[in-house]
Design a protein that fits this description.
1 helix, mainly alpha
């Protein structure tokens, strides 16, 4: 149970980091376009 919860937490953290990076790229592209 402990290992599963820790791995799940890492997946959630990774997903959040990836989401922030993608959002930053999209915002940067929009800012550059306009």
């Amino acid at each position: 149970m402990i290992n599963l919860s820790s791995s799940k937490g890492k997946k959630v953290a990774s997903a959040i980091i990836v989401g922030i990076l993608v959002a930053a790229m999209v915002i940067g592209m929009l800012a550059y376009a306009f």
